[in-house]
Amino acid sequence: MRIGFFSDTYLPIAHGIENSMEWFRKDLESRGHQVTVFAPFYPGYKDENPNVIRFRSVRILLNRNVRLTFHTPKNSSTRISDIPLDIIHAHSTFSLGLLGRKIARAKNIPFVYTHHSNYFEYAKLFYPERVVMPWIAMKYTKWFCNRADGIVAPTLKMQHSLEGIGATKPITVIPTGLTYFPTYSPDARARIRKRLHITENAAVFICVGRLEQSKNIQYLLEAFKIAKQNTALKDAILIVVGQGPDRERLEKIASALPAGSVHFAGRVPNGELDAYYYAADVFSFASWITETQCIVIAEALSHALPVLVMKDELFEQAITHGENGFLAEKNNPADFAGYMVKLATEQGLRKKLSQNALQSSRQFAQNLQTDKLLAFYNKLSQAKQT
Q1: pLDDT at 137
Q2: What count of other Cβ atoms lies within 10 Å of the Cβ of residue 102?
Q3: Average pLDDT over residues 312-337
Q4: CA–CA distance, 255 with 28 (Å, rounded to integer)
Q5: Which of 78, 240, 280, 371 has its CA 20 to 30 A from that of 33?
Q6: pLDDT computed for residue 127 by the predictor
Q7: CB within 8 A of 283, min separation 6: which ones?
Q8: Is it the case that residue 381 has pLDDT exceeding 60?
Q9: Nearest-5° angle of CA 158, CA 164, CA 166?
Q10: How does DSSP classify residue 64?
Q11: pTM of full prediction above 0.90
Q12: CB-CB contact of 166 with 147 (8 Å)
């Protein structure tokens, strides 16, 4: 099958959308399918993959990653209409997503859209005093979804959200998968703990994610501060892995906790991230409003870490309360802190949850998700032919 991925964001950025695209692309190609990626041009970046077509783009915000893409290939000799495609899969709703839809209609081939980002929830978060911005985001999302032949939702919550705003086209739930399952390394655990001056007996919580307002790390720090009031957690440590614009503010908040209680590790290379997971005992995550996927939750489970998150439909697919983690009440830092204390002090419970976490992570294997995607492609292709 000849597949076209269209996205307004791609490598060298390596966040959730880009990782999802790459993992699906590589697995599809390993099965003999041809995937061509249509993406913005980023100055100074050179693709190793020859099947990437870059489009002229300009930066529209201070963040260089946010670009306005034009429908003009960087290589002027490239004629998009001449590229043979059997199906087009958009990963964004903007310039290149619209181009993908246009080409799909011209070629009379299926047009699929994955709803990676909940734009109207972001609008509510960042423009709380403005009714118009969330309304526009919701209406545009609905409009775009209903011009696809099929929609991929990363979670059941996202499917329900799209149906709730009026998306009527077929929706299938396909999470981004795990490309590998690591092997536990006690040496890696000891190395990171030594580097961060953490004793072996100290309970360590870890959070992995971009340091920005939407990730709700301030809430996590508030809950950890409450948990630290329990003398049994006097040596407990919270490791925050990730970088972002909110780091300075979060470090100021963390300074109110006992010295050395919170360690900001910054951006950790992929090859080293496993070691940080192994240095921890519990994965804690307070974000839920704008989340659309469970990638980081699945990663934590695959490292045999019990997971502590908010009680939300998004996480109920992956976390069974009391079996592989806990679901804390929303907007209740004391409840979140209570589970932190429970997980830190009850080693037998933590061991049981750890074993169940590893087992439950198998459902996220990338090959299983690619199977679902191909089945959806074939279903839409057959419908197009009738």
Answers
A1: 85
A2: 14
A3: 96
A4: 47
A5: 78
A6: 55
A7: 205, 206, 207, 208, 277, 297, 300, 303, 305, 306, 307, 308, 325
A8: yes
A9: 110
A10: T
A11: no
A12: no
| Tokens describing residue 78 | 């490239």
Task: Report whether the peptide linkage leading into residue 134 is cis, meaning its omega lies within 30 degrees of zero.
Answer: no
Q: Residue 371: what pLDDT?
A: 99
Q: Which of 366, 222, 339, 195 is nearest to 281 (CA)?
A: 339
CA distance 301 to 303: 5
The residue extents of the domains of the chain are 2-177+365-385, 186-363
Render 258-284 in DSSP notation, one character per residue: PTTSEEEEES--HHHHHHHHHH-SEEE
Task: Specify the CATH architecture of the domain 2-177+365-385.
Answer: 3-Layer(aba) Sandwich (3.40)
The domain made up of 186-363 has a fold known as Rossmann fold (3.40.50)
Q: Side chain identity at 259, as an amino acid letter?
A: A
Residue 204 phi, psi dihedral angles, 5° rounding: -120, 125
Evaluate whether 86 touches 103 at the Cβ level (below 8 Å): no
DSSP 337-363: HHHHHHHHH-HHHHHHHHHHHHHHGGG
